[in-house]
Amino acid sequence: xxxxxxxxxxxxxxxxxxxxxxxxxxxxxxxxxxxxxxxxxxxxxxxxxxxxxxxxxxxxxxxxxxxxxxxxxxxxxxxxxxxxxxxxxxxxxxxxxxxxxxxxxxxxxxxxxxxxxxxxxxxxxxxxxxxxxxxxxxxxxxxxxxxxxxxxxxxxxxxxxxxxxxxxxxxxxxxxxxxxxxxxxxxxxxxxxxxxxxxxxxxxxxxxxxxxxxxxxxxxxxxxxxxxxxxxxxxxxxxxxxxxxxxxxxxxxxxxxxxxxxxxxxxxxxxxxxxxxxxxxxxxxxxxxxxxxxxxxxxxxxxxxxxxxxxxxxxxxxxxxxxxxxxxxxxxxxxxxxxxxxxxxxxxxxxxxxxxxxxxxxxxxxxxxxxxxxxxxxxxxxxxxxxxxxxxxxxxxxxxxxxxxxxxxxxxxxxxxxxxxxxxxxxxxxxxxxxxxxxxxxxxxxxxxxxxxxxxxxxxxxxxxxxxxxxxxxxxxxxxxxxxxxxxxxxxxxxxxxxxxxxxxxx
Length: 507
Description:
Number of domains: 1
CATH topology: Amino acid/polyamine transporter I
Number of strands: 0
Largest sheet: none
GO cellular component, one term: plasma membrane
Order of helices and strands: HHHHHHHHHHHHHHHHHHHH
Transmembrane segments: 44-69, 75-94, 115-135, 155-172, 184-207, 219-239, 259-279, 299-320, 367-384, 396-418, 430-453, 459-483
GO molecular function, one term: transmembrane transporter activity
Number of helices: 20
Keywords: Cell membrane, Membrane, Transmembrane, Transmembrane helix
CATH class: Mainly Alpha
Strand content: under 5%
Helix content: over 70%
CATH architecture: Up-down Bundle
CATH superfamily: Amino acid/polyamine transporter I
Distance between the termini: 12 Å
Organism: Gordonia aichiensis NBRC 108223
Structural class: mainly alpha
């Protein structure tokens, strides 16, 4: 059992909140425990940065941001990084105070109650699945292009997607430490090739010399920059999943915050630097037109010009491994949300068992793999386009869902500390929670308002995609109310609030 802090315990006893039900602060049942002390801060950071797929985000999405926002586009990534850094402060304050292992699911339960908590848990699982499965379409297209470029062979995209699904299943099943090492290697390679490109551009002086008009007010507030922010916020997807690995982390009270701040800081600075380097590659006056005319190959064109065709071939392979690394990172996050909800009885109990040797949530991984395979096969049989239909149709509600969960989590942090009367001792967390609610709420509004930039679809289709997020949340609320009245024991355990052996503060 965790050791309670006397002042906080007294405050909790003096609050109006009912005590946690019997068994909620007890150790998990035997046979469902994850592998402990398997991850340090670098490994956790590797996984969350890999989930964002830096090379894919840069080569695949940043050209569109430049085409819309022009020379000021790099600043949007810094702005998104600042907003997420504020959110991370609030998020880590909640992690430190509660030791919750279900991230969004646990924190929203503790702050806003079990109904909102279970709805958020369902939304997290669906949103991460949408992100992960949708990217299999992008991964297949990138793999097709790489194989065609290098070997002149054309392989159907569903076949390539299914091979990727099998690889992700195999590595994820082998355990979190194996996955972290695998992701670390892939992440080093993809960031390395981008760094080579940026340094080559700067050393050669770019198209017309190095300049900094990107950071002037004229560029930052240019028309189209609001739309660019939507792309920038989407580029950070998955960074908050650090908290999901608390049970498997070494010294989680230190490693989880470090990994979170490292991930946010690295992505904000690295994304801004790389996109700014591309501005130099084509020239501030020409980059927007160049990006608009050559969205798909902008980075490849720059690589050929400043480094060489050999580097372009290497990048075409690494963009495949970038997407594969992202898939594995999201696979791990999905499995741990599924595991948490199954452990609490909100999903079938069969999903809460871990592998007897690898201590991975293997049954949850089997289910996630099966769902991904079924969706890919269905889209393939329907003759759907892997990019414009599989990727965009699934990824869009996934992105909206994750940012919506971040807004709700920010509210939950404030509500939790206020209700527990910890406002004075957790002043920084409360202020960060209020600020991140505002900042991420604005980001969510910008994303929804510019959703057509992500989907290239009509108003009705866009409304349906955004509306699906609300539908999932409402279904989660309905499930929670069902458990409340028909299965009180399950309802009492909603939130993933089993005792954390590392926690030092009473929840």
